Amino acid sequence: MTDKDLLQHLLDYLAQQGYPEDSVLVNFMVGSKRADVVVADTETHAPLQIFVLKKQKSERAVEDGKKQIKKFLSETDTTNPDVSAYLIFPSEKEPYFTAVNPENGTMLPATFFNYQNLVQKSKNASASMLQGNKKRAVGNLKWATVMLMVVICAVLLLDLFNVIEITGYRLYLILMIVILVLLPYYETIKIANFELTQKNKKK
């Protein structure tokens, strides 16, 4: 079986399983490398599955495939930590290929591939990652707020004991520092007639 035949068998099978035609991308760039076949979410265009095709199942081919998959997953981990990847080898029986989990070497049944389940799994993973990012942001905001309160209190005490004098200029600088420290956690900060907004802030 040629590489072209193996690729066509995989594409035909995915189409039979209800994978939208525009979700299956051949020779698609993942980071700086091209993957043989990538299944992407048709709405977000984010990779959901990666297939690395090998025309023969040898120990060397398996190891090379594992290395390729490791590189691909390192590229997608920041956007979707739940991308699945498989090694594809030729088979004499329908669907004329076998899919192997590179982590444990087990062969997956053909019924394993389901596009709708795949999309839902990706959404759940993305939602979980977003929730985790929000928790970290809240924690960082609390830390930043406490530190600002400590610094401001220290400055006020120094002024109270006449160590330094808080002039209008210094007060303005303190206000600007507070705004710049808090800006990463807010889309817009508005004080009186002054407003500072982040551009292209991702929701």
Topology:
Elements: H1 3-16, E1 24-30, E2 33-40, E3 47-53, H2 59-76, E4 84-90, E5 97-100, E6 107-108, H3 115-160, H4 168-182, E7 188-191, E8 194-197
Parallel strand pairs: 3-4
Antiparallel strand pairs: 1-2, 2-3, 4-5, 5-6, 7-8
Helix pairs in contact: 3-4
Distance between the termini: 48 Å
Rg, please?
A: 26 Å
Counted beta strands: 8
SSE string, helix = H, strand = E?
A: HEEEHEEEHHEE
Major sheet summary line: 6 strands, mixed
* SS-derived structural category: alpha+beta
Q: What is the arithmetic mean of pLDDT?
A: 78
Low-confidence stretches: none
Strand line-up in the sheet with most strands: 1-2-3-4-5-6
If helices are DSSP runs of H or I spanning 4 or more residues, what is the number of helices?
Answer: 4
What characteristic shape results from the CA principal axes? rod-shaped
- Share of residues in helices: 40-55%
What percent of residues are in strands? 15-25%
Could you please describe the fold and organization of this structure?
- It is a single chain.
- It contains 4 helices and 8 strands, in the order H-E-E-E-H-E-E-E-H-H-E-E.
- It is rod-shaped, with a radius of gyration of 26 Å.
- The protein is an alpha+beta fold and 203 residues long.
- Helix 3 (115-160) packs antiparallel against helix 4 (168-182).
- The mean pLDDT is 78.
- The strands form 2 sheets. A 6-stranded mixed β-sheet has the order 1-2-3-4-5-6.
- A hairpin with a 6-residue loop joins strand 5 and strand 6 (107-108).
In short, what is this structure?
With 203 residues, the protein is α+β, with helices and mostly antiparallel strands. It is 46% helix and 21% strand.
